[in-house]
Amino acid sequence: MTRVRIDLFSSLDGYTSAGGSPENPMGEDWGLLTTAYVATRTVKERVFGDTSGTGTTGVDDAYAAASFEGIGAEIMGAAMFGLHSFPDDPGWKGWWGDEPPFGFPVYVLTSTAPRPEVEMRGGTSFRFRDASLDCVLAEASEAAGALDVRVGGGIGTARSFLRAGLVDDLHVAVAPVLLDRGHRVWEDLRGLERTHRMTSEVAESGTIHVTFSR
Amino acid sequence: MTRVRIDLFSSLDGYTSAGGSPENPMGEDWGLLTTAYVATRTVKERVFGDTSGTGTTGVDDAYAAASFEGIGAEIMGAAMFGLHSFPDDPGWKGWWGDEPPFGFPVYVLTSTAPRPEVEMRGGTSFRFRDASLDCVLAEASEAAGALDVRVGGGIGTARSFLRAGLVDDLHVAVAPVLLDRGHRVWEDLRGLERTHRMTSEVAESGTIHVTFSR
């Protein structure tokens, strides 16, 4: 049964990094939020191609590994794909090079930049959609088959799916830092603990892993 | 050595209950934030006079018990004392009845309602001060002797002391709820984790106890 999943990063005060420049698309506080994540063995291997076997193998790594497992399709917003950073480049193919680390269909939500599907190496295809969240999710679920659909971000897209009640599993890695700036991760989600069961677990790094599941 | 301590309640999204009416001074979300706290054996005994020995005795209770230990003086804002709710009552003596549960001097910050010291039963005295945070803290520390000074709140007063770098120990009980409204607990405290060591611990209730100490 396909589930809809989201993984987010937050500061203790509920912020995620505000989008930065084309040179630094994740924003300048992104490093503070992801210190423990990028230190895990899973991320070193799967994201950075570091197969030396170094990296942490504790609680942070368990959540990182889980976030990669069982995904059959992804949905992301136009900004996350980069359409807002490079609006005049009809050939823009995302931030991830010729062989993006997805390996499945990625549905990009855009009402302003429709374009044909782009097939990348390694099984990733970028499919641009101007449709309701429900419709895109139905298509992504179909594509995912027995696997799950991940709403990849950014934070606005993630919150839209959460507010619409379309998300089964939310994981937020709360970093032990106070940012006092950025986008609010939890905005307009009052009462989510009443529709989803919440758990919390503190990792060796001080990161608090919060999950909401139904 | 006197330390300056603060205990606060927050929702997962970083809000504390906005002040309510004179009939409900803590605001309507206060119950959601303090469910686990009022369920502890310590609070049942010390706040509600329930000596039946019921109540939780786990992690929440340990933090609750610690919050009562070793306090020799308190500082609170005018609103927490009730001066804003009852501005025209020069005989107002706080919310806590004839024998308030302090047992030590309580310094009330007020620039608009100076009044003589009020001696209550049980060792509590209310002392009204229109002075800088430093000056009031120096006086409270003197009064506390070898014990600690607690900044009792409200949230604005607590943040003022935190921002001024006057707080040694902050404990925040983060309740497993999303409020999406109220006063922001963490506002304007970017980088507190660099001046204070942060810890987190999840209680049986799902409350996340976060501490900052130096």
TrEMBL record, chains A, B:
UniProt superkingdom: Bacteria
Domain Bacterial bifunctional deaminase-reductase C-terminal: 4-183
InterPro entries: DHFR-like_dom_sf (IPR024072), RibDG_C (IPR002734), Riboflavin_Biosynth_HTPR (IPR050765)
Residues making up the signal peptide according to the UniProt record: none
SUPFAM superfamilies: Dihydrofolate reductase-like
Gene3D superfamilies: Dihydrofolate Reductase, subunit A (3.40.430.10)
PANTHER family, sorted: BIFUNCTIONAL DEAMINASE-REDUCTASE DOMAIN PROTEIN, DIHYDROFOLATE REDUCTASE FAMILY PROTEIN (AFU_ORTHOLOGUE AFUA_8G06820)
Protein name: Bacterial bifunctional deaminase-reductase C-terminal domain-containing protein
Biological source species: Nocardioides aquaticus
